[in-house]
Specification:
Elements (H helix, E strand, L loop, with lengths): L1 H43 L4 H18 L10 H8 L6 H9 L9 H10 L1 H11 L5 H9 L8 E2 L4 E2 L12 E3 L11 E3 L3 E2 L5 E2 L3 E6 L4 E5 L23 E4 L3 E4 L17 E6 L2 E6 L22 E4 L2 E4 H28 L4 H25 L15
Antiparallel strand pairs: 1-2, 3-4, 5-6, 7-8, 9-10, 11-12, 13-14
Helix pairs in contact: 2-4, 2-5, 2-7, 6-7, 8-9
InterPro entries: DUF3456 (IPR021852), EGF (IPR000742), EGF-like_Ca-bd_dom (IPR001881), EGF_Ca-bd_CS (IPR018097), Furin_repeat (IPR006212), Growth_fac_rcpt_cys_sf (IPR009030), LE_dom (IPR002049)
Protein name: EGF-like domain-containing protein
Pfam family, one: DUF3456
Amino acid sequence: MKANRVIALIVVCCLSQWTAAEVDVEKVSTKIRDKYAEKQISKSTVLPPCQSCKALVTSFQKGMDRTARNKFDGGDAAWEEEKMGSYRNSEVRLVEIQEKLCSDLEKGEDQCHNLVEEAEHFIEEWWFKKQQDTDLYEFLCIESIKSCCPADHYGPECKPCPGYPDRVCSNNGRCKGNGTRKGNGSCACDAGYTGVMCDVCAISYYQAYKDEKVTLCSPCHVSCQGACTQAGTKGCLACKAGYRMDAEHGCLDINECFTDDRDKGPCGPNQFCVNNDGSYSCLECDRSCSGCDGDGPDNCFACSKGYFLKDNMCVDEAQYTRDRHVLFSRYAVYGGLTVATCIIFQNNHKIAFGIGLAVALYIAASEHLISQSNQNAGPKLPLEDVNM
C-alpha cells in the first residue's frame, strides 16, 4: 500500500510539472505569435511617398556603411582591383547592398521593396554615373521619383514656402508640406504665435521683442485673463478667477482661506484650508481633531471623542492610559531589581556595588532604546504622571 501511494504521488507531481510546462510553452507560443503579428503589421505599414523614399535611401546608406571595408572575395585582391576595377564602385558591392536593402526598416519594409523594383534603374544610374556628383536622396527622391521636394519647398511643383529662404514662417512655425509633394504651404505657427506668417503674438502672449527679422512673443503671467501688455502681473488687462486687480501691483492672489468666521470658510467642518496661487485646497484634519486650522494634533479647535487636550495637543485617551501602565510597570521592575540586589548582596558591598552598577547600566540602556523607538510615536508621558 505504501509503495502504491509513493507511485501515485510521483505520478501526480510529474503531471503537475507537465501541466505547468504546457502552460509555459503556451505562453511562449502566444508571445512569439504576437511578436510575429506585430512585425508583419510593421512590415506592411504604408508610409507617405516621400517618407518611404527617405527610408529606402537610409537603408541604402546603411548598406554602404556596412560594406565600406569589404573587398573582392578572391585571393588576389590587387589583381582583382586591376582587372575588375575598384570594389568601392563595383557592381559586386551594389549587389551586396541590395541583398539586404529594406530589411533593416522597422516600418514599411514591403513598401520599400516595391519601391526598389520601381527605382532599380535610377539606383544603378546613380551608382555608376552620378555617385560622385550628387546625393542619392536628391537624385532619387527629388529629381527622379519626384516624391519629395527640397527643404523649405512644398507641393507638386515644389514651390518655396512663405518667407523662403531665411524667414520661413518668420521662423516661428513650419510650412505645411515642407520637403514633400503634399501640403498647401501655409504656416502652422508655434505656440504663442499667429497670423499668416506667424509674426503676430497670440492671445495670452505679449510682444517681448521685434525687429525687421525677428518677432519674439512671451507668455503672459499666470494670473492674466486673456491678453497682456508686458511681463508680470502689471501687464494683465484682466485677472483670472482667484485674483483681483490692484491699481499698483496688477493681479494679486485672493486668499480664499482668510475669514473672520471659521465656520463660514470654504472647506468642510473637519477640514482646513490651504491657500494656493489663484486657488485653494481643503485638507482633512488630524483624526484627533474636531475642527482645525492646520495639520497635526496641535492645531485642533477641539478634540474628537476618545481624545483629550494635554499641553495644547489632542492625545489618545486609550493610548495615554496604556503608556501610564507601561511606565509604572517599567519603573516598578527597575525598583524591584534595585531592592533585590541590595537584599541578596547586603553582606558583600563590592558585589552589591558591581551588580547595582550593572542594573543601573541596564536601566539606562533600556530607557535609551525605548526613547529612540518612541520618539516619533506621539507625545511622551511625563514621569510625574505615573503617580496620577
